[in-house]
Design a protein that fits this description.
The chain is built from eight helices and ten strands. It is an alpha/beta fold and about 210 residues long.
């Protein structure tokens, strides 16, 4: 089965502008683009491009964005048979403003991504049990993520978790994660301390090691 990615599929709506607008302000932008994305889909495509066999588990809406995302994933060589299509929710979208310094401001509307829950992931136990590795993020339902990590751990399958968007996580979930890949903001939230230096990163990492993650 190779790598199983459990996570989000979004359509990114990217606006490029000289600076982000202030509250109530209207600015002209320089460019606009639609780009298939979502942290889960990005992980799946990256792994497939590196030559891995990748199966994606997720959900999109029955709309134009959903159809485009499914087609892009297939073109990238990702197995899509476990990407469901919601009857009631739209495909997730992300509104992204990028200024001339490269700083971005992002609002994510998860849509169908949040529809997949614990029962849905439990039904996919035969898929997860055959994986060589499970990779996840946090743009989907958190209890579902906890269930998936627990299942993979019970089968002896290593779990990589990108803990983004940043949020507090319980120790039980972290104990089922083999590799954690936080940035400084995410590490600070998980460790309960500010991370603004290499030394601070080391302290945060040290505090997370007792949870069983690397």
């Amino acid at each position: 089965m190779g790598i199983v990615i459990i996570g989000s599929l979004n359509m990114d709506m990217v606006v490029r502008t000289s600076r982000a607008p202030e509250a109530g302000e209207t600015l002209f932008g320089q460019a606009f683009s639609l780009s298939p994305g979502g942290k889960g889909a990005n992980q799946a495509v990256a792994a497939a491009r590196l030559g891995a066999e990748v199966t994606m588990i997720g959900r999109v809406g029955k709309d134009g964005f959903g159809r485009e995302l499914l087609e892009v994933m297939r073109q990238e060589g990702v197995h899509t048979e476990y990407i469901g299509q919601s009857e009631t929710q739209a495909t997730g979208v992300a509104s992204i403003v990028v200024d001339e310094e490269g700083e971005n401001r992002i609002i994510v509307v998860p849509g169908a991504n949040l529809e997949m829950g614990r029962e849905d992931i439990a039904a996919l136990a035969p898929v997860i049990s055959q994986a060589e590795m499970v990779v996840m993020q946090l743009e989907t339902d958190l209890p579902m993520c906890e269930q998936a990590a627990s299942m993979a751990h019970s089968y002896g399958i290593p779990v990589i978790l990108n803990p983004a968007p940043a949020r507090a996580l319980n120790d039980e979930l972290l104990q089922h994660v083999a590799y954690l890949t936080p940035n400084e903001t995410e590490a600070g939230i998980l460790a309960g301390m500010a991370v603004n230096s290499i030394a601070g990163a080391g302290l945060a990492a040290g505090s997370l090691l007792p949870c069983g993650v690397v």
